[in-house]
Amino acid sequence: DDVESRGLGDVYKRQRLPCSVWGSWACCPTIFSAILAVCSQNMGGNAMNAVYYQSPVGPLTLIEENGALTGVQFGRAPLPAGCRAAETPLLSRARRQLWEYFEGKRTEFDLPLAPAGTPFRRAVWAAMARIPYGQTATYGQLAAAVGSPRAARAVGGACHANPIAILLPCHRVVGSTGSLTGFAGGLPVKEQLLALEAAHSAP
After folding, report:
1. Which pTM value belongs to this model?
2. Biggest alpha carbon distance in the chain?
């Protein structure tokens, strides 16, 4: 079977989740499922906005839809159909928190996230969000964390497809020997992000 087609439950369908939920409550299935059930209510509308943010690792494209962050992409990415370039309170918060992160003043993000993906990929992103600031995990460890210990390659695909870079920290995922592997922003950026976190982690 394609591991990404296995049923991990409807609770992983597109939801609006605070980043703190992904970082802590995701480890408690009961609480996490309850939050997802509440968040799954139809919010209506389809308002999409985006801004470009010039970060220390190059330009980032921040995308918001219906009051949740759906994209943080490296470079000046083409905007999706129906998306307008416009500042919103949420995008302003996102830029501010990213600035604080790059200044070494923020180790966690507090923003509503709505990453779109398959149930398997959403499970991987939730597990990825639990990797502590300044630490790393291997693809195999993430595969085991989502209950598919032989699916390290599929985990790599989920990392590559991560729509919300940095906030869902795929840069903290490394090879089995600790080596830096493929990264959407490029390996030098991955190395720079890990070095930033290492420099500002508690001893």
Report:
1. 0.76
2. 46
Active site residue 170: yes
- pLDDT tens readout for residues 82-136: 899 999 999 999 999 999 999 999 999 999 999 999 999 999 999 999 999 999 9
Residue 97 and residue 79: Cα distance in Å, rounded? Answer: 22
How buried is residue 23: exposed, middle or buried, by Cβ count under 10 Å (0-12/13-18/19+)?
Answer: buried
CA–CA separation, 184 vs 162, rounded Å? Answer: 9
78, exposed or middle or buried, with CB in 10 Å at 0-12, 13-18, 19+? exposed
Find the catalytic residue in 19, 39, 83, 170.
Answer: 170
Taking the C-alpha atoms of residue 188 and residue 181, their distance in angstroms, rounded to an integer, is 11
Q: Which amino acid is at 159?
A: C
